[in-house]
């Protein structure tokens, strides 16, 4: 008994145990950080010389020279305490980030740049956390307080979007916007949104092809209009060798819509495309830029860096293929 007491009071032993404990804390912290701050090691590679920042550096725009715009609205890492959290509580308000999407979007842009031998996509990044701002909502919903700094940031982000779109229109006459998101749905499918609901995607192929309201209501109307001599509309949504979903599915990533998963099944959750693809996509007759929302499942974003990077490689190949085939 006596000996035990002296042992636990032994300063060397206590120091040793403390060190072990600290090491364990460090390891678990490091593991946690690895999941949330990879911007240090996955950050874009210096391929882009001149990023342009909005007010307070809360938004970032990197001009490109391909007819491709990549936007990342929900991957901001900044949560300045002087900006109050959004208080809005209506049912559709989401305040959590799409984790890793900034890292994914930046690396995606790098890999596409490599594939096009230095020609690069436009990149637009929101740096504020989603508890502070949601740039993928109308300003009334995404921002609290009309005169707040976040309303300036919201406008900066959308001015960057519009500048990029005008530039692509002027230089190429057509183009593609890819809005990068992450979801937590249990199926872990990659979800591609063309602003067509699950109900519409669930119609038969012939019904989809026969109804002009379906393609003209989609965010890739302009693409279909240009290619309608050679393709049916459903080919662009889920053809094995004619759609983005088909290409990604062929890389082994379950994707909806694709030739394997033409539409979400009854109880499966599916995001069909939010504010930015609705606003900027070519479903408006006067707009010529097509827009696609890519929703990446948790399993491909978080936890395993190698798995994430393999997916980004496949996604960069698929988008580059789509761009060459339809916007070359
Ligand atoms: C924005 O970033 C630039 C370049 O990193 C820096 O020089 C500048 O001080 C920053 N501005 C603010 C308001 O943080
Ligand atoms: C990053 O830069 C290095 C050196 O220039 C290059 O070898 C590498 O391929 C680049 N990686 C990406 C993803 O751009």
Can you walk through the features of this model?
- Keywords: Membrane, Transmembrane, Transmembrane helix.
- The chain crosses the membrane at residues 12-33.
- It comes from Cetraspora pellucida.
- The protein has an 8-stranded mixed sheet with strand order 1-2-4-3-5-8-6-7, sandwiched between helices.
- The longest helix is centred in the first third of the chain and has 26 residues, at 11-36.
- The protein is globular and about 85 Å long.
- It has helices at 2-8, 11-36, 39-42, 101-115, 139-142, 149-172, 198-201, 205-210, 212-216, 221-227, 233-238, 244-250, 275-280, 298-301, 305-327; strands at residues 52-53, 59-62, 68-72, 122-126, 175-183, 190-193, 255-256, 289-297.
- 43% of the residues are buried.
- Helix 4 packs across helix 15.
- It is an alpha/beta fold and 328 residues long.
- It is built from 15 helices and 8 strands.
- The protein has 2 domains: 1-34; 40-327, Aminopeptidase (3-Layer(aba) Sandwich), CATH 3.40.630.
- Strand 1 and strand 2 (59-62) form a beta hairpin.
- It binds 2-acetamido-2-deoxy-beta-D-glucopyranose (NAG) (2 copies).
Topology:
Blueprint: H1 2-8, H2 11-36, H3 39-42, E1 52-53, E2 59-62, E3 68-72, H4 101-115, E4 122-126, H5 139-142, H6 149-172, E5 175-183, E6 190-193, H7 198-201, H8 205-210, H9 212-216, H10 221-227, H11 233-238, H12 244-250, E7 255-256, H13 275-280, E8 289-297, H14 298-301, H15 305-327
Parallel strand pairs: 3-4, 3-5, 5-8, 6-7
Antiparallel strand pairs: 1-2, 2-4, 6-8
Helix pairs in contact: 4-15
């Amino acid at each position: 008994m006596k000996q035990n007491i002296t042992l636990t009071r032994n300063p060397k032993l206590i120091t040793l145990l403390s060190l072990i404990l600290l090491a364990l804390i460090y390891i678990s912290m490091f593991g946690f950080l690895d999941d949330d701050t990879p911007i240090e090691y996955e950050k874009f590679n210096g391929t882009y010389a001149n990023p342009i920042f909005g007010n307070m550096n809360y938004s970032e725009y990197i001009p490109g020279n391909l007819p491709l715009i990549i936007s990342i609205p929900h991957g901001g890492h900044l949560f300045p305490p002087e900006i109050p959290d959004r208080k809005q509580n209506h049912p559709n308000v989401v305040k959590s980030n799409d984790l890793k999407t900034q890292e994914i979007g930046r690396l995606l842009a790098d890999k596409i740049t490599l594939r096009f031998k230095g020609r690069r996509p436009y990149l637009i990044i929101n740096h504020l956390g989603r508890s502070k701002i949601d740039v993928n909502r109308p300003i009334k919903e995404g921002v609290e307080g009309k005169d707040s700094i976040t309303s300036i940031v919201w406008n900066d982000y959308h001015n960057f979007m519009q500048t990029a779109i005008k530039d692509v229109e002027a230089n190429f006459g057509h183009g593609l916007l890819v809005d990068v998101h992450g979801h937590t749905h249990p199926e872990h499918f990659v979800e591609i949104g063309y602003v067509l609901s699950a109900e519409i995607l669930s119609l038969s192929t012939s019904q989809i092809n026969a109804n002009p309201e379906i393609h003209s209501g989609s965010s890739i109307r302009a693409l279909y209009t240009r290619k309608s001599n050679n393709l049916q509309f459903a080919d662009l949504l889920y053809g094995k060798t004619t759609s983005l979903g088909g290409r990604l599915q062929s890389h082994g990533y379950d994707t909806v819509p694709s030739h394997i998963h033409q539409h979400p099944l009854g109880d499966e959750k599916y995001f069909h495309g939010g504010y930015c693809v609705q606003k900027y996509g070519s479903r408006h007759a006067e707009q010529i830029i097509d827009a696609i929302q890519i929703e990446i499942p948790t399993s491909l974003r978080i936890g395993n860096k190698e798995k994430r990077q393999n997916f980004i490689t496949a996604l960069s190949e698929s988008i580059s293929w789509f761009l060459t085939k339809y916007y070359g």
